[in-house]
Amino acid sequence: MNTMTLWHISHWEFAVLAAAAVLVGFSKTAVSGANTVSLAIFAAVLPARESTGVLLPILIAGDVLAVLTYRRHAHWPTLWRLFPAVAVGVVVGTVFLVWADDEVVRTSIGAILLFMAGVTVWRRRQAEAEPESDEPDAVSTPAGRLKARSYGVLGGFTTMVANAGGPVMSMYLLSAGFRKLGFLGTSAFFFLIVNVSKLPFSAGLGLIDGHSLLLDAALAVFVVPGAFLGTWAVNRINQRLFEQLVIAATVVGGAQLLLR
Fold this sequence. Notes:
The chain has 12 helices and no strands. Helix 4 (48-70) runs antiparallel to helix 9 (180-204) and helix 6 (102-127) packs parallel to helix 8 (165-175). The protein is mainly α.
């Protein structure tokens, strides 16, 4: 970890990072996938590789707040289907980080996010003619298992290499037909478990150390107001607008990664 980079940021740069932390809290409790903007901000202020280590504990703080808010709405059959595939993706992502430079990482993740957004828009248009249901698609069918495994591997890979698994899993949960609260509850538990499991991998790669954790401690307090703002906003967003915001955030995040 480059200690000089972490401690020689200006007041303005710290303010920008604090704003990104507020957005993390908002995205965890309202519009999942919007934290790709936070990812881009951290990568702009700090070196891209080191920024993933600084951002991870802040994301975990947001995950804890989201779990406390939406814990009753999680769909555990979907989670159990996803975790084995995600573990594979995390391992692949760790190996990828050993040799990939920042440009390769950004291009790969950006392309995956835009592809997932396109697939989801296409699937949602197909589903518009079908009757709506309060339950997500079954994950016990062969097609459901294949979809869960595919998105799980991509989600594990993207969350490991760039903390960008949120949009991938958002696309999966939308394509599976999750309603708003089920979406937020399931993703809250998913990312809390996955992000905590990433800590030893990130520490082993030198992306997290005592100095980065001190910076996290200064920034984590800004996650709380963002989470309260998200909790307030989510009850005022209808389902269609919610889905549109999630997809739009994914497209913006993917484009930012490709264009940087």
